[in-house]
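Input record (one chain):
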Amino acid sequence: MQSLPTGYRALILGASGAIGSAMAAQLEADPRCAAVAALSRSSSPAVDFRALDSIAVAADSLRQQGSWHLVVIATGMLSGPTGAPEKRLADLNAAHMAASFTINTIGPALALAHFSQLLPKNEPGVLAVLSAKVGSIGDNRLGGWYSYRASKAALNMLLKTASIEMARTHPKAVLAALHPGTVDSALSAPFRGAQIGRRPTDAARDLLTVLDGLQPQDSGGFWAYDGQRLPW
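The corresponding structure, as predicted from the sequence alone:
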């Protein structure tokens, strides 16, 4: 991360996931990075989007350590106990929609609210959220996956709106929504069959490269892992 100061400090939420853990490992290997905090449901402090109070508690704990130059919210839910991605309107159910929005929208939004305040005000800083290309309204050509699409589209709006406010208080900061592509992970495994996605290490490297190339004027954008700017 050449765009951040020497001795920068990085914070990964969702560090137990495939992409989050790969990002944390690559940042730990960067000699310019002074510290990496890898947060998950089992870390200390813990962050659990099913226990929303944990977000503020973790942010308050890490604030005591000073500013964090890179914050990545690497979380997401596609399927679970409440169901799988809906193929038809008739498949919609309230429990799955609520779970999708809790994990994909509400939790990241509260993390954005609390952890964005840990970015330095007078140095370069980056805050990124893992979104998904299927959350693009303009790129939606196939339909389906109602709850996942809607929850990621809502996350994109929250990120964009936050970037406008942050530009006034943290003028050197960049906020970005990221599309990692299809990655070999627990999230995508049930839908890939014999076809394997990209390795998490490759996805993590590509996403960090994209973030490293962004400038404050790019804040609030939606970017694919190959550097393509995606439509909302």
